[in-house]
Amino acid sequence: MSLKSLSLFSFPFIALCFTVANAATFNIRNNCPYTVWAAAVPGGGRQLDGGGTWDINVNPGTTGARIWGRTNCQFDGAGRGGCQTGDCGGLLQCQAYGAPPNTLAEFALNQFNNLDFFDISLVDGFNVPMEFSPTSGSCSRGIRCVADIIGQCPNELKAPGGCNNPCTVYKTDQYCCNSGTCSATDLSRFFKERGLAVNNFSGTLPPELGKLVNLEQLDIESCGLGGEIPLTFANLENLQKVRASDNAFTGKIPDFVGNNWTKLTSLRFEGNSFEGPIPSSLANLASLTSLILRNVLLTGILPSYITELHSLKRLDLSFNNLTGTIPSDMFMMGSLKYLFLGNNGLSGPIPNRTREILITMNLVGNNFTLNSSNIRLLPGLECLQRSFPCSRAAPRCTS
Questions:
Q1: How far apart are CA 267 and CA 242, in angstroms?
Q2: Are the beta carbons of 38 and 46 closer than 8 angstroms?
Q3: What does each C-alpha distance from 163 to 37, 143, 213, 220 come to in angstroms?
Q4: CB 3.0 to 4.6 Å from 340: which of 151, 170, 318, 398, for a disulfide?
Q5: What phi, psi does 264 have (nearest 5°)?
Q6: Are residues 218 and 90 in the same domain?
Q7: Tens digits of per-residue pLDDT, 168-186?
Q8: What is the pLDDT of residues 53-77, one digit of tens each?
Q9: Within a domain: 391
Q10: 127 and 250 in one domain?
Q11: How many domains does the chain fold into?
Q12: Does the record bear Protease in its keywords (predicted)?
């Protein structure tokens, strides 16, 4: 029998689990800095201070099982009281599901082909971040829900200690989908848009995601995905923020990023394996305020059109293989505050004009030609040449 582990967590953890007869053992650990009253059906409940653990054994064939966390609870010596979130009828030892809002870990054992199924669900809203991971058997990939959902919760869904599911608040078919014929809503998208990041998926991005034409935010950071970005993603013309860092995406950055995603205000692709130059289509992103293409194996020159992205506040193109010179007007961009071009193969002179708005600039590890005006502008520029051993304590130059 494969093992499972569940973490109510704010950082990664390692849990030691074991098997008992033919049952599955769940190790529940509180990695949050505050007390959580863990609950399980079947299983009961237990108070877990920070770092506390609780093992429960679940019989094979169990279905409809849930594990969740409760917060801000008070119980008397008989185990009666109540919790602000996830309360189960005022009992420490839960015999029924908890009241919203609460983040749910759901599972069913020994189902089709004797497989176990598990998920993290926000059908009852959100109250604590959670990780649910198997620790033995053929399944080794876990799932997480760690987004700042409470901090970003829409006003109409806010609840003491958590964020409600819209069905809990409105109780209509539009949000509860009891008829089975409902469509996505802005409030359901709020949860969906925050549900993919920091997981352990494998394979490539499904082309079918290109059908989500109303999508405004896409967060697929650290998900274990690879391959090229599907051409169907050109349909996502309403995207405003994209975070796709720390995966294994390959190929060229698609031209449709600039030609179709023209509403983008933030684009973050760092830590991938793209190839080729910075696409010229990015010149169309007039609303872009943040462009992070750090460590993605880019080649070619720094395109001059970047200086025409007048809304850009942060630009990070460091740790690539860019060559050529810095466009003469780059340091004069009206909104640019943070510029990172370090560890490329840039050469030639450094522009000798800069605006006071520029707060941080990192140009280390290139092949620039220095002159006296450069030194007056930015003292300590020796570290901008690859042959000079830069101090680890001072890798950045500021205006």
A1: 5
A2: yes
A3: 18, 20, 26, 22
A4: 318
A5: -60, 135
A6: no
A7: 999 888 888 777 667 777 8
A8: 999 999 988 888 999 999 999 999 9
A9: no
A10: no
A11: 2
A12: no
